[in-house]
Amino acid sequence: MDFRKIFATGIFFLFLTGLSAYERVAVVLPFKSGGELHTFFYCFNEVSEGKKIAEEVFHVKKYDELARGQRERMIPVPLGTNVGYYDWAIFCYGDEFWLFENKNGFLWGRGTLLSEPRD
């Protein structure tokens, strides 16, 4: 086998292992009373990936409860971001943890209060 083919195959597999199943997307959310919240959404397509993010990044154990529960239409998908490319998103701010489903141009969500505020 040619050395170049082996090298190219190795680079390809290194590239694949570096890919993440989620994307951290910067989002600006406007307040109804004025002002803006600059934050991040963790976006993904597989519900199981959301559980990993909830536990590993935010140390949240209530993910399954949120994923099974009824969600309400919350906000339009933020324009100018990659949030719309994904089926699900997680948002955590202070003592609130939210799980959103992307459908019909809106984020449908359900949240919970945490025992300790997160950054």
Task: Give a verbal description of the structure.
There is one protein chain. With 119 residues, the chain is of the alpha+beta class. Helix content is 27%, strand content 44%. The protein contains 3 helices and 5 strands. The longest helix has 16 residues, at 3-18. The N and C termini lie far apart (51 Å).
Largest sheet: 5 strands, antiparallel
Mean pLDDT: 85
Low-confidence stretches: 12-18
N-to-C SSE string, H for helix and E for strand: HEEHHEEE
Count the beta strands: 5
Defining key terms:
about 120 residues; alpha+beta; 3 helices; about 25% helix; about 45% strand; globular
The gist of it:
With 119 residues, the protein is α+β, with helices and mostly antiparallel strands.
SSE inventory with pairings:
Blueprint: H1 3-18, E1 22-30, E2 36-44, H2 47-56, H3 63-68, E3 72-76, E4 88-103, E5 106-118
Antiparallel strand pairs: 1-2, 2-4, 3-5, 4-5
